[in-house]
């Protein structure tokens, strides 16, 4: 039997090592701070148009609700065996109750979540439809968002930030999941990142493009490929690599992980060449939860002392799990991720024979 190339063998061993890490319970904790959104899904048949408007009429066949955004990360990390300190704010409404109940049922520690009685919990509703003759071709027909018109009180955010910083001793990683809803504030993010760096705890930021100033000093920041392209155009830069290098230097990151969906992920680092990892999913199904899965994977890897390169490989496998899932299956779980790592190692081994 031919000898496996040393580079390929090293890659296979890394994937197997990551699988062993995922399969083993961890005593490390993750500090997670971010916005929570209630995701609602309606699935049904769209066999005809409305008689008075060019809009499909959906016959709803099933519905479900899911605690999303930063809650995706909390749920994923809990299933992956990490201890999560989840700092978030819910509204004192029915949507907030649904989120809290689901988190509790899935074993997520909700003791650090604050409730602001006068606020409404953000909710996103997505309607999927397909012609009955095309049962495998569901597509998103409409999305509508509901959110509070009032800002999150600064006093609540400050107390939440204080609590997150107090929880840093002994933590393996920090995740700031910023959906721009007010939980991750300018001052709060700066304080947490500064405290985490002093404690030598890696920080993973998933920012909005309008919130890059809240990521200064983080270990790694997450971007979509289209977001990186937008930054390139805005700053009149030549290519993706130059753009990544510019923002890594400007914001004092160690790296930037760019998510390309069906095109895989690319890790840009302060020192070193870009690491391009292709997506090996044959037919991507959906994208919801991609950022959250990548952030979860990075938290598991960095929280267990792994390198950014190892974190990128785990994040790529996590993204493939989400891409291959059905709509509304947007949470990463240990069994699926472990299986995917095993598949990737096996594919590399047989392809090199």
TrEMBL record:
GO terms for cellular component: cytosol. Its EC number is 2.7.1.167. Pfam families: PfkB. GO terms for molecular function: heptose 7-phosphate kinase activity; heptose-1-phosphate adenylyltransferase activity. The keyword Transferase applies. Residues 63-326 form the Carbohydrate kinase PfkB domain. Transmembrane segments: none annotated. Signal peptide: none annotated. Keywords: Transferase. It is an enzyme of class 2 (transferase). This is ADP-heptose synthase (GmhC, hldE, waaE, rfaE). It comes from uncultured marine group II/III euryarchaeote KM3_18_D06.
